[in-house]
Design a protein that fits this description.
heterodimer, A: mainly beta, two-stranded antiparallel sheet, 9% helix, globular, B: 182 residues, 36% helix
């Protein structure tokens, strides 16, 4: 009976929250200080039959994320309400949840900015700290099966001040690694925010667009694996941004350059020694561009050792591919030990074509290497008025994945007619060999999409794989796995976009905005509704 | 163990929500829009870019993009066309790159390749993205001279006219001589 009362109370409070949200949405036009965005995802389907151990394969779920901001002069107050309802019942844990996953209050004027609550920011280029959110990404937890928006924020306070050439930034709070949902937190498995960090940054703008700065960050949380004692450490970094050619008054070529060097648990005097042995936790990043008419070159170099801090995000220096088959095999940075470079050259001699060449290499611990060579030729005749196309080829080696050779090539083409109509084709093929007893594989991806501007699009995609490590591969399968899907998108009204997916979605690694995550395989129908008001 | 056949109810609920969203959005008609959050940033050339200063001259279009976003490229190219067409009539365009540390080094070469003439700002700490509640890329936000968000375009398909029509509506009409009145 008590349980029943509790459930009734919970349901009532849930309805009250929803009613309040609805009222806010309806009231927004009247007050005009409230801005909001809502993401609703409904799924009806199942997990692939190859994963029966994950529970009942048939499931329905409804996820909603509502972001509201109240703006009044220099003040902004914001909150995020997330909920996931699904048909699963796990013994001991409730995979359903609802609640506020983000709250903040913000005040800013021309020189000063203060925020309390959920904070996202960056120090330097992220070598010592970066808190962020990946746009448009919703993840699915495997334990208590539930969906949530990954948010790697700091629950605390941020203060920023800028006057003339000097800018200061200070933050303090409990960090989150962005992998824990409200459901998991409530189940008592792990808190979303744990430990404590405190740090700051000073940067000074110099003449000729040069900039120099330094940042420090102290953190506590977790256990030191060597001593078993609570972990506490501090990191310091210094950076400089300069265009040496600008100083030399050269105008035909630009050479904007950025260098940052960080160390952990060292004194200021030791920091200046620029130690870069594996025994000294350090991170060195340098990047430069050469901009010379139709030729542009991007060069980056990294040297990281024992620098996986949990709250940092050093540049990985691997190309972020938009091609489907390349994206799912992106090399994920191992900041414990990695040294390497990335060079990207582009040449656009004429208005109708661009050549891009990318070469990257990362040498990790125990001689493990990732190496990639990518080439792309893009055609855009007559400003792509009637058609445009891209062909690409890629060759890579990834010792971390046990792949001595992987070849990928493909093409994309878009044709346009009658001003508003277009059709796009994407064809990709990848072959790879593997070391050991696991055989190599062949992947093929095909997608075809027809679009009408201002209205929407309809598309079909087909994937075929012989990869035995694919998440949807059943034990004992001997034939290639095929996954087909239809999708349609429509702008149902201004500020409201809907996307419908029906079919099979391939699971595995996916990367967005420089961050990689695991996508769970899915079979069924999914409706995604994005609203802004 | 399942809680019962909720599938049809779920789908039915979704369908009802969708229909309600369309009906409410269409029936509501023109509504007063929320204010555009103020910002002050530096472009790739080191120049100060502030919303308050830009909207003195006319409406402002803020386009959020990233180097890894395929449709963003076409959107940026179209905006360069808009800069030439609507710029003399008062429209200001700002492109906000939301590339993180991983791709920051590629922003300048990318912009240089596209030969865009409007300012490009790097939102390295994600502040602008959050202020404008950008969850999909590209997202274009149109701000009028009063500082209100009067139009938003999420995603991009070439040939779209809705946002262009809204921009046209905010600009002074072209005089018979082909020039905007001063």
């Amino acid at each position: 009976m008590v349980l029943g009362r509790l459930q009734t109370t919970r349901r009532t409070s849930e309805y009250l929250v929803w009613a309040a949200c609805l009222l806010l949405v309806l009231a927004a036009p009247a007050h005009a200080q409230i801005a909001g965005a809502n993401l609703l995802i409904g799924q009806l389907g199942n997990w692939p039959p190859s994963l029966p151990d994950r529970g009942n394969p048939d499931r329905e779920s409804l996820y909603d994320r509502l972001d509201l901001q109240y703006l009044s002069g220099p003040v902004t107050v914001g909150a995020r309400f997330e909920t996931d309802r699904n048909s699963d019942v796990n013994p001991g844990t409730d995979p359903e949840y609802e609640g506020f996953s983000r709250r903040f209050a913000d005040w800013r004027d021309d020189a000063f900015h203060v925020r309390v609550g959920s904070v996202t920011t960056i120090l330097g280029r992220g070598l010592v700290h970066r808190s962020f959110e990946i746009p448009g990404v919703v993840l699915e937890e495997i334990g208590p099966r539930t969906r949530f928006t990954p948010l790697r924020d700091v629950d605390g306070a941020l203060a920023e001040w800028e006057r003339g050439p000097v800018s200061l930034r200070a933050l303090s709070g409990a960090p989150s690694d962005g992998t824990v949902s409200l459901a998991k937190e409530r189940a008592g498995n792990s808190p979303r925010h744990a430990g404590h960090i405190a740090g700051g940054q000073i940067a000074v703008a110099l003449p000729l667009q040069a900039r120099i700065g330094a940042a420090v960050l102290r953190s506590t949380g977790g256990l030191n694996p060597a001593t078993g004692l609570p972990r506490q450490h501090s990191v310091g970094t210094g950076f400089v941004e300069v265009d040496p050619l600008r100083i030399l008054r050269v105008t035909a070529v630009s050479l904007p350059t950025y260098v940052e060097y960080a160390q952990e648990d060292r004194t200021f005097g030791q920091w200046w020694s620029f130690a870069h042995t594996d025994r000294t936790p350090h991170a060195l990043y340098a990047g430069t561009n050469v901009l010379w008419g139709p030729v542009t070159l991007s060069l980056e170099w990294k040297d990281y050792a024992q620098f996986r801090l949990g709250t940092n995000d050093p540049p990985s220096l691997v190309r972020e591919h938009t091609e489907v088959l390349l994206n799912r095999h992106t090399h994920v940075l191992i900041a414990d030990r990695e040294e390497g470079y990335q060079a990207e050259l582009s040449w656009a001699p004429l208005d109708w074509g661009t050549l891009v060449l990318n070469r990257s290499r990362s040498d990790g611990a125990r001689g493990k290497r990732f190496e990639e060579l990518f080439a792309e030729l893009r055609f855009t005749p007559h400003a792509a008025e009637r058609w445009e196309g891209t062909v690409f080829a890629d060759r890579s080696e990834d010792d971390n994945e046990g792949i001595p050779r992987r070849d990928t090539h493909g093409l994309t083409a878009t044709a346009r007619w009658a001003r508003r109509w277009s059709a796009s084709l994407d064809v990709e093929r990848q072959t790879a060999s593997r070391v050991g007893f696991i055989p190599g594989y062949e992947d093929v991806h095909l997608s075809l999409t027809a679009s009408l501007a201002d209205a929407g699009s309809v598309g079909f995609s087909w994937d075929r794989t012989t990869d035995e490590l694919d998440p949807s591969w059943e034990a004992g399968r001997t034939r290639a796995l095929q996954l087909a899907a239809w999708n349609a998108s429509a702008r149902v009204a201004e500020g409201h976009d809907a996307v419908l997916f029906v079919g099979k979605r391939r699971g595995g690694l996916a990367c967005t905005a420089g961050t990689c995550y695991q996508v769970q395989p899915f079979e069924g129908a999914e409706l995604r509704l994005v609203s802004r008001f | 163990m399942r809680r019962g056949p909720r599938g049809p109810f779920l789908l039915g609920g979704l369908a009802v929500l969708l229909v309600l969203a369309v009906v409410i959005a269409r029936a509501a008609g023109p509504i007063e829009q929320p204010p555009a959050p103020a910002f002050n940033a530096r472009d790739l050339e080191g120049r100060s870019v502030s919303l308050a200063a830009l909207r003195v001259r006319g409406p402002v279009l803020i386009d959020f993009w990233a180097t890894w976003c395929t449709p963003c490229r076409a959107a940026l190219v179209e905006l360069e066309d808009w800069r030439r067409r609507y710029g003399p009539r008062g429209l200001a365009i700002v492109a906000v790159s939301v590339d993180g540390p991983r791709n920051l080094a590629k922003v300048r070469p990318y912009v240089s390749r596209l030969k865009v003439g409007y300012p490009v700002v790097i939102d390295d700490d994600g502040r602008l993205q959050e202020l404008y509640q950008v969850t999909e890329l590209p997202t274009a936000v149109l701000v009028d001279t009063a500082g209100r968000i009067v139009g938003t375009r999420v995603g991009f398909r070439r040939g779209e006219t809705a946002l262009a029509a809204r921009v046209e509506g905010l600009l002074p009409p072209v005089s018979p001589a082909g020039e905007a009145p001063h």
